[in-house]
Amino acid sequence: MKRLVLIGMVLGFPLLEAVVLVRLTQVWGWWVLVWVLVSACFGIALIKEARFALLARLAAGVAQGSFSISALTDSARTVLAGLFLIFPGVISDVIALMLLLLPGPRAVSDAARPASQGAFIEGEFRRTR
């Protein structure tokens, strides 16, 4: 049953995209073609930018002596959004925009952790009466 649902989603998504594109083309004409071409160009540029950003984040992590999994997940989200932008259709473009605009999970830095989790606060203490 799960396979049937998965096959239905995989085959149904392009069909739904095609139906929406045909309906939008009937309303707006050739502007839909412009939208599809521009979004594909943005998707390609986004994937190229994600590649360079990943290399820069990993190099900065290596220079600090740590490995950041958030660099990989952020780049993976960006690449997935770029692929959705390349795929022709309005629904995939909306999914790509949601991937780009909605905040993802972020790693907590040492400065943002409470003192009970190992961060130390240094300084002097003097009691006044």
Describe what you observe in this structure.
This protein has 129 residues and is mainly α. It has a domain at 29-104. It is 71% helix and 0% strand. It has helices at residues 2-28, 31-64, 69-86, 90-101. It is elongated.
Key phrases:
elongated; mainly alpha; 129 residues; 4 helices
Q: How many helical elements?
A: 4
Percent strand equals under 5%
- Sheet bearing the most strands, described? none
Distance between the termini: 74 Å
Q: What is the helical fraction, as a range of percent?
A: over 70%
| Number of DSSP strand runs | 0
Overall, the morphology is elongated
Could you tell me the mean pLDDT? 83
Poorly predicted spans: none
Overall SS class: mainly alpha
Summarize the topology.
Elements (H helix, E strand, L loop, with lengths): L1 H27 L2 H34 L4 H18 L3 H12 L28
Helix pairs in contact: 2-3, 3-4
Provide a brief overview of the structure.
With 129 residues, the chain is mainly alpha-helical.
